[in-house]
Amino acid sequence: MEDKKTTLAASIEREQSSSENVAAEQPKNLSASIEKSRAKKKSYLMDLRIHSPASLGYLGIEGIDTAPALVRLAKVKGLDVIAVTDFYSAAYIDRVIDAARNTSLIVIPGVDLRVTLKNCDDVILSCLFPESSNAQAIHDFLRALGVPSAAMGNRKYLVSHPFDHVLSIIDEFGAVALPSRMDKTPHRLAVLPQLVETYGFRAFDLAYADSVSIFRSRWPKIKFQLFSFSNANALAQVGSRMARVKMPDPGFAGIKHLVARQSAESSPAR
């Protein structure tokens, strides 16, 4: 009789334990399902290198207010996301953001820098900031880099800090850097290996479509995000070159994931 009671108790205990395990697994499975649903990627059409009258050499149209005209044109071109990246200036950022406020267009605040890496003093970095950033935040960033106000809009100005220090300040301000047009000259091409292998850049804004072969042949095991944006210096050039990408999140959150740098340790061997 005692053996029967012991067997029955053990059976009940097993059933209770099994029920508890099932109950514990259900929320986990449900959570995983929700997470998977959230991670579903959507398609966005982007032009992440657009200049405004704040960049020297911009071709404006007399009598046209650039900010609302830029937003209207971006919408006509079907763009979902744009970035305004003038050289050393955020003078037009707030105006473009205000012009897009009641539209579906996402405006990414940005700024272009010219920095030095190894023997190349012509490395262009398009720095992109969260949508919550404004002109003041970007001017604070430029001040942290020691950029004088006299350099506003000047593509020829060269940031004096070492490359590593520039990247640390970009990280400190919660921004991301996208090397632009590094395939345009032999001088720039010479430092591509450092950008990829030492600094872990996996996203580039290219000048020429056939430059994709350079990345594929030299680093066949690395997955790159290779774009070709307009580098617009006039309204008519906005969206002349753009990229359609899939991201789990719209705007800066998705872009940050897309262009994130990798550590040297996690880089696949060539």
Give short descriptive properties of this protein.
270 residues, 8 strands, 2 domains, alpha/beta, two-stranded parallel ribbon, 20% strand, 9 helices
In terms of topology, how is this protein built?
Blueprint: H1 2-38, E1 42-50, H2 66-76, E2 81-87, H3 93-99, E3 106-117, E4 120-128, H4 135-144, H5 163-172, E5 176-180, H6 186-189, H7 192-198, E6 203-205, H8 212-218, E7 225-227, E8 243-247, H9 251-259
Parallel strand pairs: 1-2, 2-3, 6-7
Antiparallel strand pairs: 1-8, 3-4, 4-5
Helix pairs in contact: 2-3
Largest sheet, strands/sense/barrel:
6 strands, mixed
The amount of helix comes to 25-40%
Structural class: alpha/beta
What would the CATH topology of the largest domain be? TIM Barrel
Alpha carbon gyration radius:
25 Å
Q: N-to-C SSE series?
A: HEHEHEEHHEHHEHEEH
What is the strand tally? 8
Morphology call: globular
Number of helices: 9
CATH architecture verdict of the largest domain: Alpha-Beta Barrel
Strand order of the largest sheet: 5-4-3-2-1-8
CATH superfamily caption of the largest domain: Metal-dependent hydrolases
Whole-number count of domains: 2
List unreliable stretches of 5+ residues: 4-28, 33-37, 265-270
Overall CATH class of the largest domain: Alpha Beta
Estimate the strand proportion: 15-25%
- What's the pLDDT, averaged over the residues? 87
C-alpha termini separation: 72 Å
